[in-house]
Design goal:
The complex is a heterodimer of chains A (591) and B (299). With 591 residues, chain A is an alpha+beta fold. Chain A contains ten helices and 35 strands. Classes of the chains: A alpha+beta (591), B alpha+beta (299). The structure holds FE2/S2 (inorganic) cluster (FES) and fe (ii) ion (FE2).
Chain lengths: 591, 299
């Protein structure tokens, strides 16, 4: 029974042996017209990607697998395990790449000791009866200069001849069955439970790889003689096939030359700003009490994978009928399977945190935004100081995990009210002498402690602070007194401490909607837009979360938010429409 | 259209292209083969610094000179133009200063297109990753914004205020220094780099790359330095340059496609690539079609 017209594009195709994927290695795989970079992360996940960096097209197989991300050899762009999204661009350490900047990935499964991928949409997983529920060992892969069909054919005809070189004299080999890309043969008289199946991987129109899998619990107790035997038998078969004139030799140049069609990367209009409207459904896979008044939630994907996140990133949690609330991700670079957040119960505010504490159950579904990052971490500092107060530990912890992953020096200071208020204590203590816990200090003592910390910083130290607004203000004050450049101090406010001045009236011109709207005293741009049915997403509506930021084409914005960075504010290309104003009569906006 | 037809139909055909360092040819010696724009050419060094370059398949008649290609010797190299109307070759005024040492630092064969090699030469972002410990070192990876101007007269790209942290910018300097570069692209396949000179603060050392396109996807890169340095030996200067180029070669040969895509959507460019973006546009508007994949706008 033969299926010689099997179409590789509709099947799972074996592209590597599991043992090819040694830790921290990138394996070069290949399908017709498509080179693959295949690598296993430290968490075991097998990534199969287009073998081409989005930046300048360099093969990713010459890059570095650091266990959690793949780094391109040319300019060091980092791509995350699982999602393939670009998480860091070293030439611009202060920017955060948009999550849409993502490499092309292919599905992967591991079965029978082989690694498989597919170009089709979810075909059924290969199931060969003889291999199910048995120990399997892949044979050495043998590459043949002949098409998949030729190899399939030849295997069937020649398999019988294997017994001529049989490991034992009375071995008998029969072709049992075969599918579009596999040939199953057995059995060996002296090894009744042994079976052998060949899978054929098409590499080009006229090149294939034979991947044999041996199975049988008894046979594999001592597999070496069998492996040796088949290794030489397959070599012999390859020589036969190639000398039978079934091979077409090709221009070697062409062979080495097609890592796949250029698929255009999705390029957002500005790669620094993520689209803020995309939503995602996730499941609460774990909920646990983390400290007094703080619960930790693990959010897992319902379908597919979660978008990659960078250190410092946050998500919005959207509950029906409530304003969205922002929570920083605690994830380190190696944690890409789920999002981890810490939620502090706030008695004031929109009620999201109370709902999470009181109502939300493990197993529930919630809607969240794609991760956004307005607190990016530079990885070009020789020294970094991380300061967290209370629940502000969440983004700081993801930064600490990243710095420790890439071996950069840092010191973490974590101010808490009491031991019982220490969220993520075990993760913090994993940094050992790099982490300092300051428990129960008064306001005055906290300030003294911060002065002491900042005094030790040299001018190249980058400082990241997250915590309650009075603490952030204090750190900024102290650092100013000490003459530390503003550029070195990075803060993230969970709320906007500024008093908003809605005093001046002006006009906005909406370039894409072709509209002019007057913004009177006492009303925000966002309110006027909403009154006029212009859809701009918003969330905190107090200039802290950055959801309502739009592009400014012309005019001078007066910034009153805490979500844009100092540099973005100076450039004047963006405005937080929920709080900021204009000093020019007119602002032209790109909406 | 095949490569040869592309060459003939685009502006590259009337450009001067480097073939050999003059010093590598023996005066009165046998003609030497090389390849230019998909055609085999023969190059011969005559007496008194004169050269003769011709297409290798050209039958020689009695009037030998009339069959020769346009050729000249400049910056220590033999240049030729296959097309009938050669454009003017750019100048490097510093080259002619009497107290400079002009050292040909070697020719490197690379399996890549000429414009990919030029972009690599104009690129600072790869220093810490490719020239680790020499031209850059982690974690100092930032490329701060620099200026790019494209002028008509002369028709060239200039990038200024290019600053980069280098672990050992000059002989004898201890610890890292921020070095300033100026880049000049006066020719689709040639680029010049100016770098502060450690021996004379008021002057700049010049490093050049002149790329000979053998085919669309294979080049010979000729390099030259014109420096004020009374100390280093020619050999040590050459060895340094060869080490640097040896580090770039495997990267260049692993770029796909080998030709340079001119469509801005094919590859993601960042602010650090400002000069590369300008270069791609300039190639497209200058009608260069050899060694590139034309973008949507160019066709
Ligand atoms: S080509 Fe990969 S980082 Fe530039
Ligand atoms: Fe380089």
């Amino acid at each position: 029974m033969l299926y010689l017209n099997g179409d590789a594009s509709k099947e799972w195709i074996p592209v590597a042996s599991g043992t090819d994927l040694v830790p921290r290695h990138v394996f070069h795989g290949r399908l017709p017209g498509q080179e693959l970079a295949i690598w296993r992360a430290d968490d075991g996940f097998v990534n199969i990607w287009q073998n081409r960096c989005l930046h300048r097209g360099v093969r990713l197989t010459i890059g570095t697998n650091d266990g959690a991300q793949l780094r391109c050899q040319y300019h060091g762009w980092c791509y995350a395990n699982r999602t393939g999204s670009c998480t860091y661009i070293p030439a611009h350490p202060g920017d955060s790449p948009a999550p849409t900047l993502t490499n092309r990935t292919f599905p992967s499964i591991e079965k029978y000791g082989l690694v498989w991928t597919t170009l089709a949409d979810q075909p059924p997983v290969p199931a060969i009866e003889a291999l199910e529920n048995h120990v399997t060992v892949p044979l050495r892969a043998v590459s043949v200069n002949a098409s998949m069909q030729t190899v399939c054919n030849q295997l069937q005809h020649r398999a019988k001849r294997f017994d001529e070189f049989g490991p034992a004299n009375d071995s008998q080999i029969e072709v049992m069955s075969s599918g579009p890309m596999h040939v199953e043969v057995r059995q060996f008289a002296d090894l009744p439970d042994a079976s052998l199946t060949f899978f054929i991987q098409p590499v080009d129109e006229d090149r294939s790889v034979i991947r044999g899998v041996l199975s049988g619990d008894q046979a594999l107790a001592e597999p070496l003689p069998l492996l040796r035997f088949f290794s030489s038998a397959l070599n012999e078969m390859r020589d036969h096939i190639e000398s039978d004139g079934l091979t077409v030799f090709r221009d070697t140049e062409k062979i080495s030359d097609c890592p796949g069609k250029i698929t255009k990367p999705v390029k957002p209009s500005n790669y620094l700003r993520a689209p803020s409207t995309q939503m995602l459904k996730v499941r609460v896979s774990k909920k646990r009490q983390e400290a007094y008044g703080v619960v930790a939630l693990e959010l897992s994907p319902i379908k597919g994978m979660l978008p990659g996140a960078q250190p410092g990133a946050h998500i919005d949690i959207c509950l029906p009928g409530k304003h969205a609330a922002q929570y920083s991700l605690v994830n380190g670079p190696a944690e890409t399977g789920r999002y981890l957040i810490g939620v502090k119960r706030e008695e004031a505010g929109g009620g999201v945190s109370r709902h999470i504490h009181d109502e939300l159950q493990q197993g529930d579904e919630v809607e969240i935004s794609f991760p956004k990052n307005r607190f990016p971490l530079r990885r070009d500092a020789v020294n970094t100081v991380l300061i967290a107060g209370g629940i502000g530990i969440t983004p700081i912890l993801s930064m600490a995990k990243t710095l420790s992953h890439v071996n950069l020096d840092f010191v973490l200071h974590y101010f808490v009210r009491s031991e019982g208020h220490t969220a993520f204590a075990s993760e913090v203590s994993a940094f050992e002498q790099n982490a300092n816990l300051h428990v129960g200090l008064s306001v005055g003592h906290t300030q003294d402690q911060v002065s002491e910390i900042l005094e030790k910083c040299d001018p190249t130290t980058q400082i990241y602070v997250c915590g309650p607004p009075p603490m952030l203000d204090m750190v900024q004050c102290v650092s100013k007194e000490q003459g530390i450049s503003e550029k070195m101090v990075h803060t993230e406010y969970f709320e906007n401490p500024n008093t908003i001045d809605l005093g001046i009236a002006f006009r906005v011109v909406l370039s894409r909607s072709n509209k002019v709207l007057a913004i009177p005293q006492g009303k925000t741009i966002l309110q006027v837009l909403q009154e006029n049915d212009i859809d701009v997403p918003s969330s905190c509506e107090q200039g802290a979360c950055g959801t309502c930021v739009v592009k400014v084409l012309l005019g001078n914005p007066v910034h009153q938010d805490v979500c844009l960075t100092e540099i973005e504010k100076q450039q004047g290309n963006w405005i937080a429409t929920c709080v900021s104003r204009s000093s020019s009569d007119e602002l032209i906006l790109d909406i | 259209m095949n490569s040869l037809e592309i060459a003939k139909s685009c502006s590259t055909y009337s450009c001067w292209h480097p073939l050999f360092a003059l010093e590598d040819l023996e005066e009165g010696g046998v003609p030497v083969y090389t390849q230019l724009l998909d055609q085999a050419v023969l190059c011969e060094r005559l007496s008194e610094g004169k050269v003769s370059v011709r297409l290798a398949d050209q039958q020689r008649g009695p009037d030998r000179q009339a069959e020769d290609l346009h050729s000249q010797v400049q910056f220590g190299f033999v240049w030729a133009c296959i097309g009938p109307n050669p454009q003017l070759l750019f100048d490097i005024p510093e080259y002619h200063e009497p107290d400079r040492r002009n050292v040909c630092t070697g020719v490197f064969g690379v399996e890549v297109s000429a414009p990919r090699a030029i972009e690599n030469f104009l690129d600072m972002g790869h220093f810490p990753f490719v020239h680790t410990g020499l031209l850059g070192i982690e974690p100092h990876t930032e490329v701060v914004d620099y200026q790019v101007t494209v002028s008509d007269e002369p028709n060239e790209i200039v990038a200024t205020e290019c600053l980069f942290f280098q672990p050992q910018a000059a002989v004898g300097s201890v610890g890292g220094v921020v070095t300033e570069y100026v880049y000049r692209v006066p020719h689709p396949f040639c680029a010049i780099l100016y770098k502060s000179c450690p021996f004379d603060e008021s002057r700049r050392d010049v490093i050049t790359i002149f790329v000979q396109p053998e085919s669309e996807e294979r080049i010979r890169a000729h390099t030259m330095m014109s420096i004020v340095d009374p100390e280093s030996s020619d050999t040590s200067i050459r060895l340094f340059q060869q080490m640097i180029f040896g580090q770039d070669k495997p990267i260049l040969e692993n770029q796909f496609p080998k030709k340079l895509p001119l469509d801005p959507l094919d590859e993601i460019s960042i602010r650090a690539d400002r000069v590369a973006v300008a270069y791609r546009k300039w190639l497209a508007s200058g009608g260069v079609r050899y060694g590139v994949i034309p973008g949507a706008q160019a066709t």
